[in-house]
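Internal tracking record. Fields below are filled automatically when a chain is submitted to the structure queue. Please do not edit lines marked as system-generated. If the sequence contains nonstandard residues, flag them in the REMARKS field before resubmitting.
Queue: standard
Priority: normal
Entity type: single polypeptide chain
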Amino acid sequence: MTNQVVANLLLDTANTFDNANAAVTLEQIRNIINELAGGSASSLGGGFDDITISSDSITPVSYSIRVIPATGAADFLDTIVSTNFPEGRYIRVFPKDAGDTITIVHTASGTDKISLTGGANFAIQSTKDWIQLIKIGTQWFEIARNTTATGVVNHAHYDWTVPPETPDAIIVVFTLPETTITNSLEVILDSARQFIGDEITLTDGGTTVTFVTAPIGGAVIKVKGAFIP
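SYSTEM-GENERATED OUTPUT FOLLOWS
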């Protein structure tokens, strides 16, 4: 990441701002523009920066990043090395190729870790999928995401009532009318969000929910998420 231009250099009254300094300064300004949204570029020349994951981590140098799995067509992204970025800088992460699945791992704390809205992992698996992050301290925090695996996504919710005759059941199986986007489901039990790993586990694409503590009969379960119609 390019360092900021020295303060007041362009207003230098000592006449030390010669042609050589001007050339260096203008190149710095060019690189800074290319590193920002709309100007990001591989080798600072135009387009995306394509980065291959290494040990579940990447080290980006600009705003728009396309991520490549270390091997195969799937990988995890646990950390984004932030030393190249000043605090407050944004980045946007895409998968490089259609068919690749990059699972961005949510971790609430830690150097270069990623904190995701909702506290759950998020998979980008289409070249139209992306997540936008901001650097705060030595961490990355989600500010926006887009999930369009087929270009058409329906954001909806469905309601079920736990049958009163099975009050001790901890496994609830849903029949969803649409295909679920991976890792997009959110389960709410009587207005309380159920956290994956703490209160529930999701399997079978989110159609099977296992509760740590069985919901009482008559409880209302809402499932919200992104679906492919």
